[in-house]
Design goal:
170 residues; mainly beta; elongated
Length: 170
């Protein structure tokens, strides 16, 4: 008896030779300066999409970057039915999660963080002088962010303005 969940295995069969224009439907490189900040946001952080349905035709994943300013704390949120993986590139991340954000863990460069579906959480830059920079991957081609106002954060979010050549201070 096979207890494995049912999966769509249509991807197991490669396309017939000559049926796909690989030049225009093959590997794509998204340069660092081409990331798209027109994606779902949470106060206290800046997300930028690299891979999604609109940009490259991705069907099953979303990938991009997230930056959190030194000392900043995001609002409480979850990502619906999506699974999320966060890879810490620079800085120190503190994650709080749970119905009252009662659980906490920290991650440093080289660490991975897994966030299951519907988990209320808050990202915190644990450093007071260094930007937290991460790579983010989600299990669907569109970013889902549900900001939660009904959960009082353990660490109060701060208003942090994203200021760069494109985003001016309000």
């Amino acid at each position: 008896m096979n207890n494995a969940p049912d999966h769509d295995h249509s991807h197991d069969i490669p396309p017939a030779p000559g049926t796909v224009d690989w030049r225009n439907n093959g590997v794509r490189v998204i340069k660092a300066g081409q990331l798209d900040t027109n994606t779902a946001q949470t106060p206290g952080m800046n997300r930028a999409a690299a891979i999604n349905a609109a940009r490259v035709g991705a069907q099953k994943i979303w990938a991009g970057t997230v930056s959190i300013h030194a000392g900043a704390k995001t609002g409480v949120h979850h990502h619906g039915a999506l699974e999320s993986v966060i890879y810490v590139v620079k800085g120190r991340a503190r994650m709080r999660w749970g119905e009252r954000l009662e659980f906490v863990a920290e991650a440093e460069p080289g660490d991975f963080i897994f966030v299951p579906p519907y988990v209320p959480h808050q990202e915190i830059n644990a450093s007071s002088d260094e930007t937290l920079e991460c790579v983010l991957v989600r299990s669907d081609n569109e970013a889902v962010v549900v900001n939660l106002d009904g959960i009082e954060p353990v660490e109060r979010p701060e208003t942090v303005y994203w200021v760069d050549p494109i985003h001016k201070h309000p």
